[in-house]
Structure formats: structure tokens, C-alpha cells
Amino acid sequence: MSGPTRLRTAADLLAAEKSLDCVHCGLCLPACPTYELFGREGTSPRGRVYLLRGLAEGEIEPTEKVREDLDLCLVCRACEPVCPSGVRFGEMMELGRSEWLEPARRGTMKDRMRRLAVRHLLPKPSRLGPLAALLRLYQASGLQSLLRRYGVLKYVSSELAARDALLPRVPGFAKRRRLRRFFPAVGERRGRVAMLEGCVMPVVLGDTNRACASALAAQGFDVLVPERRTCCGALSAHFGALDAATAAALETVRAFAALGPVDAVVVDSAGCGSVMKDYGRLTEEAKGVSADDARAAAAFADKVKDVSELLDEAGVRPPAGRVEARVAYADACHLAHAQGVTAPPRRLLEAIPGVELVPLPNADRCCGAAGLYNALQPLESTMLLERKLDDLEGTGATVLATANPGCLLQYRAGIERRGLPIEVVHPIELLARAST
Ligand code: SF4
Ligand code: SF4
User: Fold this and answer.
1) Residue 325 and residue 423 in one domain
2) Residue 19 has what pLDDT?
3) What is the pLDDT of residue 116?
4) What pLDDT, on the 0 to 100 scale, is given for residue 20?
5) 166 and 293 in one domain?
């Protein structure tokens, strides 16, 4: 199992080496999108470490102001790679949310949305279908366009209008179907992999999942998909519901175990991959988790790979076709900062004949999607997105590639609103296109 023991309690946080070793150097400040936006110490990594230390020591209370500064954190983890003290910021924020923020919430609409999503909706993927159908009805009936055209929601609240503007576009029923259970390798067989279907992906980004499975098959991998669709627990962990995240992790490990031995567990969602690689630490010594289950979770975690990592290690087989496009690549925070994967997706894009990779300024800056951040903090999320779109417009790209569902949907919403002629896809979709 990699890494130190996971922080689970205030005592862990105070005792653990590297959890609070902030030396106040300030190197993290320029890396932090919320510090850039608000310029307040409380919205910087250093300020948040100070707040978390104060909460752990019982020196400060989780007042509304403290909660607001901590809630504004994207948990994008851009502060981690630049921190010379190795402060484990993402983990500290997850613990902080679970220990002090959740119990102090007052039952506002945001609090109820957060609880509903991380405890009752996302961990039960079957419940997402009816919600998607309702959203589809709202969009396909023209009601959403009508409300937008006359700015009706702005009269109710600017936050509601911003939230509506960031809603994902739900495809028709046919595109919300599940993946086949098996995609056989084409040509010389290079391995047998299992693929995560996920909870949100099949509902709004089923085409991306299908492209991933067929591109892997075209690259010579047998692709197996578990019978039971599970949620990986990433969003629950992100919002401090560590018990729900642990339960989701165990369910996921069991669902994949039913497939038998595989060479790798492949993920096309950066946020999911990031938590799945951490299953060993998430379940180790967790309440109610047996030592056997924790060992199985750790062994599973060692097999998890982002699809770009797998293909980078195996070497991309040159596809038969071409994709003529100027492509800008935007790093997903949970791929670049949480997993340290930045070169493989770029190399994958460069391996596609016809693709011209163009540099995107601030490519590793958060787009504001950040799990449920765009639903919970829609105004701040929109401000972050607008900055990204300004950077993107200057590149002349015809395609924006990014490797996380939240980012894909966030960019699609922003690009549609600005009316830009830019397609937003996962890098693997371009490889799939060149492979058919
Ligand atoms: S970079 Fe690390 S040590 Fe320096 S101020 Fe930020 S959190 Fe503290
Ligand atoms: S996780 Fe992101 S938003 Fe939060 S403090 Fe670090 S850099 Fe800032």
C-alpha cells in the first residue's frame, strides 16, 4: 500500500507528519485558483491549513465565515505539488469537511443538496436514471431555452441562473444505455482489462465510455465491464462523507472481483481514478472494514490506471485513420495534481495522425467543475470557467480535450453559452475516431 496512513480524526491530523507542517512560505498561493479569485488569506491553501489546525486544536469554531472559506476550496490539489513541506491538503480538506463542516451545517438548500447527492444519489447509480430523464424533459421540451431566453431564472436568483447555465446536457434515452459487458480485442491481443462504467458517466457521457471501450479493444485489449454498476465513492470522499466513500469502494471492489483476474482496471474519469488508486488507504483500519476486505481493496488499487497511462505504458498502436484537428488539452486536476499524470494524455493525442496539439495557457488551472462545486458554488465556478475560456479562445483550437467528466461537462456548458466553434471531448474519443 502506498503512502502514509490516511487521516481519519482530528488527532490523526495533529499527529501525522506532513499534515500540518506548513512553514508559511507562500509558494502555494500563486497555484491556488480561489486565492487568485478572492485574494484573501482564508481562501488560500496556507490560510486553510491555519483554519484546519485551529479547528483540530479546538482553538476556533466552525463559524459560517470559517465554513465559507473552507467550502470555497475546490480540493483541486494544485497546492500539493508546489508545497515544499508535502502538506497533504486534499486529505486534510476531506477530513475537515467530515469532522467539522458537516456537523456544523444548518440545513440550508446547499447543505441539503450536498447531503442528498453524496449520501443518497451518487452512491446509488440506479437513482440517477429518473433524475436524468427529468432533466432531459426540461431540456428537450424547450422549457430550459425559454427560461434562458427571457432570463427568468435571474429574477429568482443569480445563483439559480448560474446553476442552470452549468447543467449538463442530457442525451436521449438511446445514448443513456449501459455498456456491453465485453469488448473483444482486435488483432494481436495485448491484455485483459476491466473498465469502470461509473455512476454519472453512463447517464451523460455514455458515448465517451463507449469510445473508451472500443478504442481499447482496437488497441488489442479485451475489455470487461462489471455486471453491477457501482459508484467509486470519489464525490462522497471529496465532500467529507468518508463512510459513504468507503462503502462505495468495497462495493466496487466486489463488483470487479466477479470478473476474475485482469491485468489492469481502466478508468476514463480522472476523479474516479484518483480515489480508486487510494482504496487501500481509504479502507485500511476503517471502521467496520475487515482486514481481508482492506487487503483486497489495496490489491485492487494497485491495478487502477487512467486509460492514457495504460496506453502510454503499452505504446499506442498507430490507428488506421486520421483526425484533422487543432487540439488544446486541459489537465483535469485529479489527473494532474492528484495522480501526477500529465504527459500520457498529451502523448496519446500526439500519436493520433492529423492531430495538432496546441499549447493552452494555464492548462492545469481548475475549470471550476470540481466535483459538485459547480452545483454548490455556481457563481464562483462560473468565474473560474470564464478565465479558462478566455485562455482557450486565444489558442485557435477546434477541439478541447480533457479527461474528466466534470470538466467535459463544464467546458461544454461554457462553450455553448459563448457560442464558440470548439468541440469538447475526452482524448480517448479522438483515438476511437481514428481507429474506426
Ligand atoms: S506551500 Fe506548503 S508550506 Fe508553503 S505556505 Fe503553502 S501549505 Fe504552507
Ligand atoms: S485544493 Fe485548490 S482551491 Fe483548495 S487550497 Fe489547494 S489550490 Fe486552493
Assistant:
1) yes
2) 56
3) 78
4) 64
5) no
Of 297, 312, 327, which residue constitutes the final position of a domain?
Answer: 312
Task: Centre a 10 Å sphere on the Cβ of residue 206 and count the other Cβ atoms it contains.
Answer: 18
Contacts of 143 (CB under 8 A, 6+ apart): none
**Cα-to-centroid distance, 205 and ligand 2 (Å):** 27
Cell numbers 475526452 correspond to: 426
Give the global pTM: 0.91
Of all protein residues, whose CA lies closest to atom 2 belonging to ligand 1?
Answer: 83
Distance from residue 242's CA to the centre of ligand 1 (Å): 25
Range of the domain at 399: 318-435
How much distance in Å is there from the Cα of 83 to the middle of ligand 1?
Answer: 5
Atom 7 (ligand 2): residue with closest C-alpha?
Answer: 32
pLDDT for residue 310: 98
Q: Are residues 151 and 81 located together in one domain of the fold? A: no
pLDDT at residue 123, as a whole number: 67
Alpha-carbon distance 330 to 409, whole Å? 13
Q: What are phi and psi of 248, to 5 degrees?
A: -65, -40
CATH classification at residue 204: 3.40.50
Q: Is 5 within a domain?
A: no
pLDDT below 50 — which residues of the chain? none
Residues 131 and 192 in one domain: no
Given this model, what pLDDT does residue 178 score? 87
Cell for 164? 442552470
Q: Is 311 exposed, middle or buried (0-12, 13-18, 19+ CB in 10 A)?
A: buried
Domain count, the chain: 4
Q: What is the distance between the alpha carbons of residues 306 and 300, in angstroms, rounded to a whole number?
A: 14
**Amino acid making up residue 58:** G
Q: What are the distances in angstroms from CA 435 to CA 33, 157, 206, 217, 338?
A: 37, 47, 18, 10, 30
Query: Does one domain contain both 117 and 99?
Result: no
Partnered with residue 399 across adjacent β-strands are: 327, 423
DSSP letter, residue 387: H
Query: What residues form DSSP beta bridges with 358?
Result: 328
